[in-house]
Amino acid sequence: MHIRQALSITVLTREDSPIVAGPKNERNNPKNEILVDALVFAISACTYSRKAHGVFQERTMPVVEATPSSGSTVPRRQLGRFLRRYREAAGKTIKDAYEHIECSQQKIWRLEKGDPNVVVKSTEVKLLCDFYGVPDDVKEALVSLSKETKVKGWWHAYGDVIPEWFELYVGLETAASRLRKYEPSLIPGLLQAHAYLEAVMTAERPRVPVEEFGRRIRVKQERQVLLTRGFPPPPQLDVIMAEAVIRAKIETPGAMQQQLWHLLRATDELPHLRLRVLPSVGPHSAAASGGFTILEFPPSDRGSSEPPTVYSENITGALYLDHPRELAVYEQVWAELEELALNERDSKAMITTLLKDLGDTSS
Predict the structure, then answer these.
(1) Which residues have a Cβ under 8 Å from the Cβ of 83 and sit 6 or more positions away?
(2) Domains, the chain
(3) Which residues does the UniProt record annotate as the domain HTH cro/C1-type (predicted)?
(4) In 224-323, which residue ranges form alpha helices assigned H by DSSP?
C-alpha cells in the first residue's frame, strides 16, 4: 500500500481538558467559540524550528519580546483569537482588560486582532491569562506563543511537548473563506471516505490503541463538517490532486471504490468544491514543493483581512508561511498546476472511468 508516512492533521479532544470539559449540549453549541479553540491551536513551549537554506533546524527558543512588524503573523493571529475568546468566555470587556494590565484600549483591540504592528509582551499575556482564568497548561502555551511572534517563518514541530488536541491548523482552516490544496499522494482529509480514512490512519499510526484510533477517526470526520456547515458559509475548496492519488491501491477491499464514489458525489452536491486531477506529466514546479494548502481569509468588519497563509506538512511538523515573497512563489506554483490539471469535467470523467474499471459504482 503506497500511503505517505506523514502525520495526519488531527486533533485529540480531551474530556478532562479545562477547555473541552462542560455539558455536552454546550460543547456542540456553535456560539460557544471558546470550545472551538480546543481544537484549533498548537504551540511548542520550548522549541521552534525554521527553514534555513532548505534545512529545518531545531533551536532553543530565545526569551525575547517581539518588535513591531517582525515575524510571522500566524502566531499573532492565533494568540489574538484565543485571548479574545477567553476574555469573552470570562465575561470581561476590553475596558476591563486594558485597565487590568494598565495599557491602552487600542492595544488590547490590536492584540486580539493579531495586528503585526503591536508589541507582544509575554508578561502582559500572562497577566491577561490570569485575569481570564485560563488553565495553567493553556496559559503556558499562550505565553510561549507570544514569544513565537518574532519568528520569520513559523515552524510548528510535532512532539510530546505539543498537545495534539491543541492543533493550530484546524483553527486556520475553520476561519478560512477559501482553501486551495495541492495533494500529490493522498486524497485530502476533508474529502476522505470512511474506509480510505481508516486505511490512511492505520498506515500512519499502526500501533495506536483501538480506543484512541477510534477517537482520531471521529475527530477527522468532524473536520469534514466544515464543507456542509450553515453559518458561516463553508469555504471555497479548490483541490488539485495527482492522478497517482486516485489510482493508488488500498489493501482494504472496496476502499478505493468507495472513495472514488465519494469524490463524485461531493462534486455533485457541493457547489463550493472544485476538484481537478493533475495527469501524469513531466517535471513541474510543484514536484519540488510537495503538497501544500493556501488559506485565504474573509475581510473583517472594518474591511481589512488577514494575509493568506501557506501550510505545508512534514513527517515531523508543519510550516506556516505568510510573507508576500513566499506567498508569491506558491501562487506561481498554483498557477502552473492549474495550467497542467484537467478541467473539472474531464477530471470527473477520469474518476468515473476508473471507478467503472474497478467494477463498483456504489457506496
Answers:
(1) 111, 112, 125, 128, 129, 132, 142
(2) 1-10+171-363 (3.30.870), 45-162 (1.10.260.40)
(3) 83-138
(4) 243-246, 255-269, 285-289
Amino acid in position 237? L
Please give the DSSP secondary-structure letter assigned to residue 245: H
Query: Cell numbers at residue 140, please?
Result: 503556558
Peptide bond into 232 cis (omega under 30): yes
- The answer to whether 166 and 42 are in contact (CB under 8 A) is yes
| pLDDT at position 9 | 26
pLDDT of residue 303: 65
The pLDDT value given to residue 319 = 84
128-170 pLDDT, tens digit per residue, is: 999 999 999 889 888 888 887 766 555 555 444 333 444 667 7
Q: How far is CA 30 from CA 34, 65, 172, 192, 236, in A?
A: 10, 35, 16, 24, 20
Pairing of strands 292-296, 55-60: unpaired
Tens-digit pLDDT profile for residues 44-58: 322 223 332 232 333
Dump pLDDT digits (tens) for 257-309: 999 999 999 999 999 999 999 998 777 777 777 899 999 998 866 666 778 99
What is the distance between the alpha carbons of residues 96 and 22, in angstroms, rounded to a whole number? 25
232: helix, strand or coil: coil
Distance, first Cα to last Cα, the chain: 21
Burial of residue 331 (CB within 10 Å: 0-12, 13-18, 19+) is: middle
Beta carbons within 8 Å of 225's beta carbon, 6+ residues apart: none
- Position 27 scores a pLDDT of 34
The torsion of the CA quartet 215, 216, 222, 224, rounded to 10 degrees, works out to: -150
Residues 101, 127: Cα–Cα separation, whole Å: 7
